[in-house]
């Protein structure tokens, strides 16, 4: 008798429908908030309890079922897309989505997310079927369902972000950032310009340096920092939160504002990447530098190869060029080469450049070990650190830090870093990983440190700054004299000049970026329709309030 009472509800379709909906709501709550994974259970249980109390799907005064299609199906599906992105990346960045769709997503290494995408698709199908059944069977849901559709649309962060970006269409001032842009210009060069080794450590943010939360995962980078100068409080502003955006911000001094609808060939991949601005490669190539980029992943993904080839780099090597040179062709991961292999090829490339001896060189390198969600620790790390459980991102962080330290020590021992500035930076803050709750508990900042000739050892500089400030900082650290310590939107952190974040704060900067159109036009000059010059207004007009200036003389009234 008891077993019949227990199994009877499970034979009723409404309980299956309510269970599916409850589980989906519980998972969404866990994915987009700080609830622990087990929080799914009480959320789903609360939903089922409410369904039992209000007799959802079986009203006391039922009406004839209606074969209707709920208006909420599309809003629910869009919320499902947002939950998937939040669960995958932690922070949903519309700029990243737009850019990757346009720059190209072929040869990516995210195959480990394919199973998750399939499961999400099946779950969404079950949710939509369950919700349709509930609306058709319960007239109360039919009466309020259209209002629910509007609430779901209005509350979806995807649409919130789109409406923010749409503010640029109607804003009175879409050139606030562009007015602050300073084209990079070398006024004076040192007699013996140093070489440059710029190491991007994928997702290895400086937040990991907190030993109370993350132990010794960052210890090897701390050891490197003691040999040079460490910069703290390098924040992540909007449109700098993915690999290409982080590299462009730190090398071009500007956030990567995607071409979007400005691109004149909407259904073709970008043929050039930020062609309207000069970047680190352009400046150094103009000073006689021989430049090389090496990365373990495909250079075709997200336009990396196009960017470097278009901005002064003679040698651009990715998975396509480096994998055939491996002794073991099977020693690769989903994205490409492991970092121990990549760093071996980096040493070879620096040896080649040194042997040629025809002027200074610059090498930019992008690692993979720290890539979310779990990382790709090299075999060299496994031999040193022991077995990898496949989940612990701190294992991969320690691996990335140790490999970077080992590379610098190898190059230093061989005399390959004489008269060389070494810069180590994270490309961006990490996305959702196993220690996400700990990472997001407080303020976060990027890794940035310098070591080499002229750099004081054992020093720390804490300034509210962002990745755009790395560009002029690198130039000044190499001994170049630039206009007003500025390049792009960045300010050298070696100078007393205030940064954008110090002058305006992160919230104000984000609001301004949502309204910006002129800087976007500048970045994609040549790929966008010509800007139509407007007739000057006959009346007097204040271009910019004095308190809104950025270090230069106050704007005048025209």
Automatic annotation (TrEMBL):
Residues covered by region (Disordered): 527-558
Gene Ontology, cellular component aspect: plasma membrane
Keywords tagged on the record: Cell membrane, Membrane, Transferase, Transmembrane, Transmembrane helix
Annotated ranges, domain Sulfatase N-terminal: 195-479
Gene3D superfamilies according to UniProt: Alkaline Phosphatase, subunit A
Gene Ontology molecular-function annotations: phosphatidylglycerol-membrane-oligosaccharide glycerophosphotransferase activity
Coiled coil region boundaries: none
Segments traversing the membrane: 15-32, 38-56, 114-135, 147-163
Subcellular localization(s) per the UniProt record: Cell membrane
Enzyme Commission no: 2.7.8.20
UniProt membrane topology term: Multi-pass membrane protein
Protein name (Swiss-Prot/TrEMBL): Phosphoglycerol transferase
């Amino acid at each position: 008798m008891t077993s019949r009472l227990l199994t009877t509800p499970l034979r009723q379709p409404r309980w299956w429908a309510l269970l599916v909906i409850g589980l989906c709501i519980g998972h969404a709550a866990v994915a987009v908030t700080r609830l622990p994974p087990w929080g799914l259970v009480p959320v789903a249980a609360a939903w089922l309890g409410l369904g039992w109390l209000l007799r959802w799907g079986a009203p006391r005064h039922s009406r004839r079922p209606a074969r209707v299609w709920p208006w909420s199906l599309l809003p629910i599906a869009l919320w499902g897309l947002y939950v998937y992105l939040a669960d995958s990346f932690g922070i949903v960045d519309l700029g990243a989505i737009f850019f990757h769709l346009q720059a190209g997503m072929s040869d990516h290494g995210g195959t480990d997310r394919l199973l998750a995408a399939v499961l999400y698709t099946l779950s969404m199908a079950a949710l939509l079927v369950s919700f349709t059944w509930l609306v058709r069977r319960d007239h109360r849901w039919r009466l309020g369902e259209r209002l629910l559709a509007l609430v779901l649309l209005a509350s979806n962060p995807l649409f919130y972000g789109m409406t923010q970006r749409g503010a640029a269409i109607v804003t009175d001032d879409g050139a606030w950032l562009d007015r602050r842009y300073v084209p990079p210009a070398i006024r004076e060069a040192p007699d013996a310009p140093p070489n440059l080794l710029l190491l991007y450590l994928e997702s290895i943010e400086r937040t990991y340096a907190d030993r109370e939360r993350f132990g010794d995962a960052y210890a090897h980078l701390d050891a490197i920092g003691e040999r040079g100068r460490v910069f703290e409080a390098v924040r992540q502003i909007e449109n700098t939160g993915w690999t290409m955006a982080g590299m462009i911000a730190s090398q071009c001094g500007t956030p990567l504002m995607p071409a979007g609808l400005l691109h004149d060939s909407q259904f073709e991949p970008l043929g050039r990447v930020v062609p309207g601005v000069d970047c680190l490669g352009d400046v150094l190539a103009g000073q006689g530098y021989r430049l090389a980029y090496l990365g373990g992943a495909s250079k075709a993904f997200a336009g990396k190869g196009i960017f470097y080839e278009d901005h002064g780099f003679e040698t651009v090597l990715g998975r396509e060029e480096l994998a055939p040179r491996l002794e073991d062709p099977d020693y690769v991961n989903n994205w490409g080469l492991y970092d121990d292999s990549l760093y071996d090829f980096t040493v070879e490339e620096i040896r080649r450049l040194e042997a040629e001896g025809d002027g200074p060189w610059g090498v930019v390198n992008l690692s993979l070990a720290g890539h979310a969600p779990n990382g790709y620790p090299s075999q060299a790390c496994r031999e040193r650190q022991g077995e990898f459980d496949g989940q612990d991102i701190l294992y991969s962080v320690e691996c990335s830090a140790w490999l970077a330290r080992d590379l610098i020590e190898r190059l230093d021992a061989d005399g390959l870093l004489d008269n060389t500035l070494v810069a180590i930076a994270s490309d961006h803050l990490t996305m959702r990983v196993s220690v996400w709750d700990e990472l997001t508990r407080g303020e976060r900042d990027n890794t940035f440190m310098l070591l080499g000739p002229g750099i004081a050892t054992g020093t720390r500089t804490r300034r509210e700054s962002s990745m755009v400030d790395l560009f002029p900082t690198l130039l000044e650290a190499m001994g170049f004299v630039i206009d007003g310590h500025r390049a792009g939107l960045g300010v050298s952190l070696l100078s007393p000049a205030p940064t954008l974040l110090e002058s305006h704060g992160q919230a104000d900067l984000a609001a301004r970026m949502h309204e910006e159109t002129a800087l976007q036009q500048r970045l994609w000059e040549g790929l966008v329709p010509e800007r139509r010059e407007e007739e000057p207004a006959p009346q007097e007009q204040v271009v910019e309030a004095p308190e809104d200036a950025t270090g230069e003389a106050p704007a005048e009234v025209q």
